[in-house]
Amino acid sequence: MVIMSADVTKEVKMMAEKLVEKGLYKSQSEVVRDAIRQLALKYGLKETNVEKMRKKVAAASKRSGKTLSQTVREIRDES
Amino acid sequence: MKYIDTSAFVKYYSEESTEKGSDRIKELIDKAKGGEEILITSIMLIGESVSVFDKWLRLKLLEKEDFTELLAIFTNDIKELTAVGGLVLEGINILLITASIDYIVKYGLSLNDSLHLLSALLNKKDIEEFICSDKQLLNAANKEGLRAWNPED
């Protein structure tokens, strides 16, 4: 990790605090990291790699024994 | 034109080794992206797919960063597919919801299952195959005269 400092308005700082308070992020640093990642995706600076993602999904599937198709069924049964 | 249910579409984001039928779905969706195939589905597929990814995040099967990226990949895929005409999204209205009640009662389906089935039946004459990986919905589709196909088989 490296340190990056930035000037933000009180409003932006409060929004970051609220996102942490709500439990969506562990820290304000994580809020900033995710916001920058999303901006990079939005502006095409980061290549999305579907093959890499498939490997992660498959690994999660292997660990949990769950599949995406089965989760569709679960969600439909829950609703 | 082929109808694709969410249970089949989401296989695009996994691998054959853990999610049976993934290879067939990859081939199908990639063909649709290339303009060689036309798929149709209910607009519900978008919300249902995001719910699946969200559930995996909540179950801690996916990291927040991976979830964000998966969502971006999925959104781009939907945009790309619809832009090239490879995916037609059937809308939902009050009449469709009302009509879906018949199939809920007839086959004991959930509302979402029933809306997918009805969305396919409304386009029955143009649909060659009903692609789905849910046995209950496949069974109902078969009984309604759709040529149902499970990519897992």
Can you offer a commentary on this structure?
Chain A has 79 residues and is an all-alpha fold. Chain A has four helices and no strands. Chain A has helices spanning 10-21, 28-42, 50-64, 68-78. In chain B, strand 4 (129-131), helix 7 and strand 5 (148-149) form a beta-alpha-beta unit. The radius of gyration of chain B is 15 Å and the shape is globular. Chain B is built from seven helices and five strands, in the order βααβααβααβαβ. The model of chain B has no long low-confidence stretch (mean pLDDT 95). Chain B has a single domain (2-149), classed as 5'-nuclease (Rossmann fold, 3-Layer(aba) Sandwich). Chain A binds chain B through residues 25, 30, 34, 37-38, 41, 48, 50, 53-58, 60-64, 66-69, 71-77, 79, and chain B through 6-8, 10-11, 13-15, 17-22, 48, 51-52, 55-56, 59, 61-62, 64-66, 68-70, 72-73, 76, 110-113, 133-134, 152.
Blueprint (SSEs and pairs):
The complex is a heterodimer of chains A (79) and B (153).
Chain A: H1 10-21, H2 28-42, H3 50-64, H4 68-78
Chain B: E1 2-4, H1 6-9, H2 22-33, E2 39-42, H3 44-58, H4 64-83, E3 87-90, H5 94-107, H6 111-121, E4 129-131, H7 135-143, E5 148-149
Parallel strand pairs in B: 1-2, 1-4, 2-3, 4-5
Helix pairs in contact in B: 3-4, 5-6
| Residue-averaged pLDDT of chain A | 89
Number of strands of chain B: 5
Number of domains of chain B: 1
Computed over alpha carbons, the radius of gyration of chain B is: 15 Å
End-to-end separation of chain A in angstroms reads 41 Å
Précis, in short:
With 79 residues, chain A is an all-alpha fold. Chain A is built from 4 helices and no strands.
List keywords for this structure.
heterodimer, A: 79 residues, mainly alpha, 67% helix, 0% strand, extended, B: 153 residues, alpha/beta, Rossmann fold, 5-stranded parallel beta sheet, 7 helices, 56% helix, globular
